[in-house]
Every structure is written in C-alpha cells, then in structure tokens.
Amino acid sequence: MRGQARQSLSECHDCGLIQRLPPAEQEASLIACQRCGATLRQVRASSLLLCTICATSGLVLFMLALSLPAVSVWMQGGRYGRSDLLTGPARLRQSGFWELGLATLLTLIVLPLIKLVTVVAMGVAVRSGRYRGCSRQALPRCPPSASGPWSTCSCWVR
Fold first, then answer.
1. pLDDT digits over 88-107, tens only?
2. Which end of the chain has a smaller Cβ tally under 10 Å, C or N?
3. Residues 11, 60: one domain?
4. Does pTM top 0.70 for this prediction?
5. Are residues 29 and 55 in the same domain?
6. Nearest 10 degrees: CA dihedral of 128, 117, 53, 49?
C-alpha cells in the first residue's frame, strides 16, 4: 500500500507542487499540474507502434546504406574511385591504424546496428504480448530536464 502511494506521487517541475497522479490507462492522455497546468505525464497515441515502425525503417535504410556506394568519383583519364561505409575502416587497417579502424567500425556499423535491432525486437515483443511485465507505468520515462538536443536521456522505470 505504501509503495503504491509513493509511486503515484509526482512533483511538478515548474512550480514544485507534490500531488497524486490519477492512473493514465487510456491510449492517449495528458496529466497536468493542478496549480500551474504544466504537463506532468503524457501518454501519446500509438507511441510504441510508431517507435517500432521508425526503427524498422531505420534498419532497412541502414542495410541500403551498407550495400550502396557512399561516394563515386570519375576523374579525367579514365580513373574511377568508389567508396562505401566499409572502405574507411578497411583503409585504416591497411595503413597500420587497426585500433582506429576497429573503433570506426564499431561506432559506424556495429553499435548502430545493435541499437536498431534491439529497438525493433523490444517493440515487437511488447506489441505481441511476449513481454508480460510491461505496462504503461513500467515503460521508461524521461524527465524534460534530463534530455536535450545534444545529450542522451537519463531514463528510469516507474
């Protein structure tokens, strides 16, 4: 009982009022501060579906980016040059800078691929009901002050 009361309490980021939040079980809902009207919690319509669709689209575009050339150059005299995403790390390795080539390969290809596959897998698992421990309140929440245009978001599970 005491844990439930603590979970439903929220402090307004604008005026500092601590208040009990009503459950937001609808598909799309907005909970505002009673004193100043600032947004305390917002559940957007079909956000999980939209996230899964965007990540799947990103995965398809990522595969296209890997298979197509990034730069093609024709020079006078019949010289031709072509470069794709794997050319940079391969040239760094051939030049003796294998550590830099590995770091470039990881940040350019491996880590984005892992992130996209993970987001698609999570979206499909939650959407299909295979992940039973997930509810609207258990999804990650990010405070507006913790995220910015050039920073990562510090999320927690409520």
1. 999 999 999 999 999 999 99
2. N
3. no
4. no
5. no
6. 40
